[in-house]
Each structure stands twice: as structure tokens, then as C-alpha cells.
Design brief:
Elements (H helix, E strand, L loop, with lengths): L2 H13 L2 H8 L3 H15 L4 E4 L2 E4 L1 H26 L6 E8 L5 H13 L3 E8 L1 H9 L5 E5 L7 E15 L9 E2 L9 E4 L9 H12 L6 E4 L3 H9 L4 E5 L4 H5 L4 E5 L5 E9 L6 H20 L1
Parallel strand pairs: 3-4, 3-5, 7-11, 8-9, 8-10
Antiparallel strand pairs: 1-2, 5-12, 6-10, 6-11, 6-12
Helix pairs in contact: 1-2, 1-3, 1-4, 2-3, 5-10
Length: about 300
């Protein structure tokens, strides 16, 4: 059982079938089918089933996934470690970031890193917090930035800082710039928030709704919007209020496009954490990127 066979198995699983996997791996469909057949023959069990015309994991396949992910990631680590012997501040580094963290602060990190290490091939992917962890776990990203720690035993999470949440509204909102005693006083408002999508959990959305529930606001009137930029534009237009991290609307608040409502009992925050794979290989370039991230985000922590 080699890493190429395991990677082929994972690609068939993630792409939903042989034909899509063949396109992704730039191989023929018969070649992919033979690879899977040989792996199944070696294991003595089928890894996939055809159900309603779709390729699904068998029970054995579902058991196999996490082990295959770890094995493929370990093989990638080995290759990266050997290649790193011939270079220091060069080579590829993959960064995965929760979409709402891809703002001005991240831009400063990327500019500083690119200036200091111009030979590093840095790639960036955005995803939900849960997906960031999955990308790190599978070895598809080296460093991740997400909200709140992941308790998985195969990941290391380093808390960078806690970012407070605030209620934002249009400048002409009756409560703009004012203070209310508690969050429940805003129950009658229309709220704008990230949707909770089944199978694609986003920490930011879950946190907001959990906060509403603890404050007795389970039945609020809300509009689901899956883009932070779109949320802010709706708030600016007076079509609702939102609960956002301070950095998310900092520019709009400075320009007076958006205002805040101070809430007496609102003490919630999001932890911003850096995620790496426990025991995974970090090249010199990856370690330097992590250092730049720590330095930049430590400024935020000290400013709080």
C-alpha cells in the first residue's frame, strides 16, 4: 500500500467519482480504476459503492479516510524535509485562512513576508474554520488561521489574540453611537449574519447564534448573508444590524460609513488561532511565515 494509491483513493472520494478524479490527477479513467481495484484487492474489501448512480464510500472506505490522509500527509512531509536540505528561504508554503480573517492585517503579514523572503512560493486559500483544519490535517496547507481552537489530537493550535465582537448599524440608525443595557434590547431589530450551512460549519455563525440563545434571543428576525462585504453594505444601507469582530468594520467605522451600538452586557470575542499539524514538518520558510504572523498579531493583542 503506497502513498500514491492512498492519494488516488482520497481524490476519488473528494471528487465524487473516477472520472472527476482522473481529470484532477491528469490520468486516464482506466488507470484510476485499476489503482483503486489493486488497493481494494490488497485490503480484501471494497472501498467504494455505487448508490443511485453515484460513487460513495463503503463502510471500509469511511474507516480508511483518516488513516489515508495521515499517510499521504506524512509522505509529503518526508519529501518536503528532504527538499528543504537544499534550500533555506525558498520553496512553497501554503496558507489557509478563514475568509473573514483575510483583511488588512493579513495583507500586512503577506507584504512583510514577501518583502523579506521573495523566493518563497506562497499560496493562499480561504475556507471556513472547520475547512482550514481539514486542509492542515490533509497536508494541503502548512499553516492555518481560524477562529477558536480545534480540539483534534492531530492539530496544534496557538492562540494569537481574542478579538471582541461589536454591534454595528447604519449611521442614521436611532441607536447609532448610543448605549443599550443588554443585547436582548435589540431583539426587535433585523439582524444580518452568516448562514449556518449543513455540512459546512462556520464558527463565526455558530458563535453568533449561540450568543443570541444565551441572551434569550432565539427567535430574532435575521437575514443570512454569506459574504462579509455584502453584510457591511446591507448594514450601511440601513437594512439590518450585525454582530461583527472589531477589525471587520474598522475601515467603515473610521470613515463613518458604519456606526456602533454599545451593549452593556456584550463581552463576547472570537479567539484567532494559528493551526499546524502536530508532528508535521515545517520548512524554514514556513517557520519564518509563522514568526511574521505571530509578530503582526501580537501587536493586536498588546493594543487590546
Amino acid at each position: 500500500m503506497d502513498s500514491d494509491a492512498l492519494n488516488t483513493f482520497l481524490v476519488v472520494h473528494r471528487r465524487g467519482g473516477i472520472s472527476n478524479a482522473a481529470k484532477a490527477l491528469h490520468r486516464s479513467q482506466p488507470a484510476i480504476s485499476r489503482r483503486i481495484a489493486l488497493l481494494e484487492q490488497e485490503l480484501g474489501v471494497p472501498l467504494f459503492e455505487r448508490i443511485a448512480g453515484k460513487t460513495r464510500l463503503s463502510d471500509a472506505g469511511r474507516v480508511m479516510v483518516p488513516y489515508a490522509e495521515r499517510a499521504v500527509a506524512a509522505a509529503q512531509d518526508a519529501e518536503n524535509a528532504v527538499r528543504a536540505l537544499s534550500r533555506d528561504n525558498s520553496g512553497p508554503v501554503a496558507l489557509a485562512v478563514t475568509g473573514t480573517l483575510a483583511g488588512a492585517q493579513l495583507s500586512r503579514v503577506l507584504k512583510r513576508f514577501a518583502r523579506q523572503y521573495p523566493d518563497v512560493q506562497l499560496t493562499l486559500r480561504t475556507a471556513t474554520s472547520g475547512e482550514v483544519s481539514d486542509l492542515i490535517r490533509r497536508g494541503e496547507a502548512t499553516i492555518g488561521l481560524r477562529y477558536n481552537s480545534d480540539g483534534s489530537h492531530d492539530l496544534d493550535c496557538e492562540r494569537l489574540f481574542a478579538e471582541p465582537l461589536q454591534v454595528v448599524c447604519a449611521p442614521d440608525h436611532p441607536q447609532a453611537g448610543r448605549r443599550v443595557g443588554k443585547l436582548a434590547d435589540l431583539r426587535a431589530e433585523r439582524w444580518i449574519a452568516f448562514p449556518e450551512v449543513p455540512g459546512r460549519r462556520e464558527i463565526a455563525a455558530s458563535h453568533v447564534f449561540a450568543l443570541f440563545l444565551t441572551q434569550g434571543m432565539g427567535e430574532v428576525d435575521w437575514t443570512p448573508v454569506d459574504s462579509l462585504t455584502a453584510q457591511k453594505r446591507l448594514v450601511e444601507a440601513g437594512l439590518g444590524i450585525a454582530l461583527l469582530a472589531q477589525s471587520h468594520a474598522a475601515e467603515e467605522i473610521r470613515s463613518s460609513a458604519i456606526a456602533t451600538i454599545r451593549v452593556g452586557d456584550l463581552t463576547a470575542s472570537h479567539d484567532v488561532v494559528a493551526v499546524t499539524r502536530r508532528g508535521g514538518f515545517l520548512s524554514a520558510a514556513s517557520r519564518r511565515l509563522l514568526e511574521v504572523i505571530r509578530r503582526e498579531f501580537s501587536k493586536t493583542r498588546m493594543a487590546k
